[in-house]
Amino acid sequence: MKRMRGWHRFLFGLPLILLLTHLFSVKELQQSSQTMEPPEKLNKKFDHLVLGPAAGQGLSNRLQCQGTKALNRTHGSNGRSSLEDSVAFVTVFTIYNSSVNTADDKAIKTEVGSASYNKVERSMAVLNAFINFIKVAMPRSNVIILTDPKSDFSVQRSQVTLYPIQGEYSRDKLMLQRIRSYIAFLDSRHKMLSQRPGNITHYIFTDSDMAVVDDLGQIFHDHPNFDLALTFRNNKGQPINSGFIAVRGTPDAILRAKLFLQDVLRVYRMEYMKASRMLGDQLALASVVKSKPQFDANRFSKTVAFTEDIRGTKVLFLPCAMYNWTPPEGAGQFRGMPLDVKVVHFKGSRKRLMLESWNFYSSSLDIPDMLCLILASGRTKYDF
Predict the structure, then answer these.
(1) For the domain that residue 188 is a member of, what is the CATH number?
(2) 81, 88, 203, 274: which one has the fewest Cβ atoms less than 10 Å from its Cβ?
(3) CA dihedral (341, 344, 350, 351) positive or negative
(4) Which residues cross the membrane (predicted)?
(5) Number of domains in the chain
(6) Euclidean distance between CA atoms 307 and 288, whole angstroms
(7) What residue numbers bound the domain in which 217 lies?
């Protein structure tokens, strides 16, 4: 009988137990939902510059920052070279007709800080930022833009010139056309100097997604015996980056640089046309460089400049760590910035960081240079 009474009491209390369990589960779910962000908020990328701790603190071979002030650069931007007024920057840039006429390209906007760009507008914004950086670091230098004669854009800036060159500027052939345009430009400079000798102008050919943050005239002063300069990195398959090529402005050096690039173009056409959209030019450059008998490729693993005579051209090899440095995506993923970076290459998704860095820099009076700003940035991917 006692067992029956206990069983009845259990059955009577069972609904109350189930009710309390249900209420507890509902309350726990409500609490957890309050502490979790919705999925779309968690995955949202920042549309503005995010500053964090500068990576590489305490490492003697990395830039040390106090806020946005660099503490241990051995060569600062204050000392201008005497050659500054005789250096011109050359880049290839075009606006594709398909981009101008496509409704989707006009409608889709990218937010960068307080600005909003469609595809054409953001390409122009990157080009203008490229020019802006040069005007700060080397204000007397000229900028020459090699472009498709059919391309419909203008740049109303002092010391900036559009230089149309006939060619095939489609996206699939742009890297191939870039070498052709460089060759055509050097050929015209050589002919001009042969007919009308005058003051020497040195040329630095770069991608338009680069930021020059220090005076580059020192290259020609410190290394007086080269014709053409390339930037190298410790990458077995692609040790040469084609985004930076310097050419001494003497008639003989311009001619030898042109002949060197013609060799590169020939190798490109023969061996790397399958990579014509990307990387083909870099593969061709490496092939021509390594074609020299007994060339020591182990020097690419060190960040020390060196010179080699390759096919009759004196080629100066400059380390990417100084003249063509690319910030990894996410500043927390790398161990700081090398000392004395002079050129920052904002490849691919880093173009947003290039625009944000310029906007932040130009709106502030308290930033002595760009390097610590860039180093403390990029906490997220800056996709376009």
Answers:
(1) 3.90.550.10
(2) 274
(3) positive
(4) none
(5) 1
(6) 15
(7) 76-324
